[in-house]
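Deviation from plan, reported transparently: aspartic acid complex.
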Amino acid sequence: MAKLTEISWEDFEALGLEAKKPFLELPDGSGMPYHTLFAQQFDRNALEKLCALANRIRFINKSKEGALYLKNVLAHKRAMLYFSQPSSRTFLSHLAACQILGITTGSVRDAATSSEFKGESHEDSVRTFSSYFDMIIMRSPERGLAEKMAWELSNSERPIPILNAGSGKDQHPTQALLDIYTLIRSFENKGGLDGRTVTFCGDLMRGRTVRSLSYLLTNFTGIKQIFVAPKDLQVPADVVMILAKKGIDFEVTEDLKAATKVSDAVYMTRIQDEWDSAKGDSAKIDTSRFKFGAEELALLGKDAIIMHPLPRRDEIATCCDHDPRAMYWRQMRNGMWIRAALIASTFGFADTIMNCGY
Ligand code: ASP
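Because the crystal trials were delayed, the predicted structure below was used instead.
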């Protein structure tokens, strides 16, 4: 088994994502992640296992007895939520997931309130957290920081797992997990997810959820991906390269209406203007044709769904909110269950929960 303790940071960093995967797995041979850093760690088997576990946790939690059982499963663990970028849903759903499993939590939500403000390095901060906690769930504006921290911790005397809750413009693996869980649930009684068409629309250039979900979708058979965006915000070359290499059918277009007509899922995203190099750059781009409103709703198939990682601005009109095909609210709640499943799996408790008497 590949071990982070047996490779230098420089050699590890230089590997491709798929080559990094074995270094990040649980030692039990299950192939499930110990450190969760990017979407490339999940194959179809891992996704199906996690979704089954999320369903199980969801079911067990329905009764008081079941909920109390779950609250005891990881009552001996503590998790640190280290978020140095704004977050509502990702923070709260991880917090709620920990609460479901009985994990005690601590948090830093703003580096200005931690010793980083006094000049402490990320490495020293994370090392400090590892002295008190058993897992670090971290969000950072820096691409690759979670990876570096995972390597650092694995090479420390307190090797605890890192869960990437969003890394810069790069990856958001747990959002992609909840998106896949939502897609699987939406189509489970309608012939499944294979062979579907998924459209991504909005700021595809800088939206990390798009990169992570686009990859996860390649684990399924015959899923076509359509990317709808203004030229300056179109899907980045690395995503296209992965699709081309894997022989995935995809299309790049500016026509949301045409894409909507043929889609089983339309995944809207907001303009990520926090990454503008000069303030107001995004506002100069005409995004008016990349919004989902009443006209698009009328074109959407009756079994198709509308998704959004949220937060939303005006890219989905509120008139869509009560349509049964609007899946973004349920998507949010699904995040709590799949994150609980991932955390339980990370601590090696997936089988215990799957096989419990509830
Ligand atoms: N909440 C998602 C993220 O953290 C999407 C967004 O912010 O637009 O990437």
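DSSP finds 14 helices and nine strands in the chain. We consider this an acceptable substitute for the interim report.
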